[in-house]
């Protein structure tokens, strides 16, 4: 785990006392299960999904109502106690984990669906509703949550909004900045801001909710989310393709937009290295495998294509969608853009194909750790970052898949290429400062030089706290700090992170 030798606890923050814990018990109405002080029980809240960041919180609070959240924050603000809001704790930048002894405020006991209108498609939920639960609820009514991601079984809708998560459906349904209609937020002084009844259109002044979408717990606690949900597509197809070059990935994207147009719902890419990592975890034959034999550990290598593409189509008329996809595939195979492919409509096959894409996050972490970079770049240069990083790691003699004495297993690229979003994962045998120094700030400088963003979707959190300047200007950073000071003058909300 990361240690923080160069960081000091802010002495302005009070240390937790027994009297504070008593006060919180009072606020939670004597609900003992909502006040966690046992060190074993606190382990989950003090460590992130990658096991990279570790905090030392002595207290986790699990309120059940917005009123309780308000009273807790007011108390913390009055007593200068620092707070880290936490949803499903699946964040990938260390934002959900305390750095020192901040109090964790978990939303997991606020997990009810508040209402759903099956004419407008407006869903209102508590922030702690798990994304997959919300989507399953919507499925029963013929609707779909406009966001999907690999962590859906654990992440919260509130956490998704707090990180402005992008995910696999952004290409089709756009970002949460568009689909979230209203929020209920508790400010650090306990004030409750409620725009849950907002309608689709509302031009009465500043759109305040936008400030909290992607604020990563630094301005207030989101307790309720109102979101516009589309009708659930009745026909879903996936094509999993092998292509010979990154140029061919881009060409396939261009043609997919042209020919599949309104039914195109995801366009993802994976390099071969990412599929090798996935093969080591999934231990089944690759979707495009011909007759590769598994080795003695049960792993069979994916075929030799340098890149793979996963295309999803979703629509309301199966025959129409099938015909469109078929003709698209015929065209791209015939003109040589795509070299190989397989198609599926069957629910369990769909899930298997997605696993070779969604599983890469977990597969990159299977050898002991992962350094993750989640970046936006202009499409023509997007993959060059992965190549540059591989060269640099080799120059420093740090990388080998087979030689266990080298700290880095491999550097892999994949992601939402349809949104210009690359995920670069450096899979390591353990967290290692030498590797980190070779990667950072190199990766951030490279992104700045190529006019990208150092975070496309995971946010800044703790990992990128010193690197905001690679994407935001000094003027923008000053405005961000001004807003933070205005809403959180004592700085109690998620301190030591990106502001
Ligand atoms: P947490 O991890 O608990 O918190 C994340 C941040 O939000 C923290 O800073 C926290 O303080 C803050 N926060 C949480 N809840 C609240 C709240 N109610 N009010 C205020 N602040 C709050 N992200 C993508 O964008 N796209 C992906 O495709 C994607 N795929 C993923 C796949 C896997 C396997 C994993 C592990 C993660 C993935 N992520 C992805 C990362 C993503 O940020 C999270 O999965 C998710 O959005 C975070 O939700 P959470 O409830 O787990 O939040
Ligand atoms: C993804 O797209 O798979 C996610 O953002 C998670 C990740 O890349 O690790
Ligand atoms: Zn992603």
Automatic annotation (TrEMBL):
Main location: mitochondrion
SUPFAM superfamilies xrefs: FAD-binding/transporter-associated domain-like, FAD-linked oxidases, C-terminal domain
Keyword Oxidoreductase: yes
Subcellular location: Mitochondrion
Reactions that this protein is recorded to catalyse: (R)-malate + A = oxaloacetate + AH2; (R)-lactate + 2 Fe(III)-[cytochrome c] = 2 Fe(II)-[cytochrome c] + pyruvate + 2 H(+); (R)-2-hydroxyglutarate + pyruvate = (R)-lactate + 2-oxoglutarate
Top class in the EC scheme: oxidoreductase
One GO biological process term: lactate metabolic process
Cofactor(s) required for function per UniProt: FAD
E.C. code: 1.1.99.39, 1.1.99.40
Superkingdom of the organism of origin: Eukaryota
Cited Pfam families: FAD-oxidase_C (PF02913), FAD_binding_4 (PF01565)
Keyword tags: FAD, Flavoprotein, Metal-binding, Mitochondrion, Oxidoreductase, Transit peptide, Zinc
One term under GO cellular component: mitochondrion
Keyword Mitochondrion carried by entry: yes
Molecular function terms from GO: (R)-2-hydroxyglutarate dehydrogenase activity; D-lactate dehydrogenase (cytochrome) activity; FAD binding; metal ion binding
Ranges where the FAD-binding PCMH-type domain occurs: 53-232
The family this protein is said to belong to: Belongs to the FAD-binding oxidoreductase/transferase type 4 family.
Record's function text: Catalyzes the oxidation of D-2-hydroxyglutarate (D-2-HG) to alpha-ketoglutarate. Also catalyzes the oxidation of other D-2-hydroxyacids, such as D-malate (D-MAL) and D-lactate (D-LAC). Exhibits high activities towards D-2-HG and D-MAL but a very weak activity towards D-LAC.
Identification of the protein by name: D-2-hydroxyglutarate dehydrogenase, mitochondrial
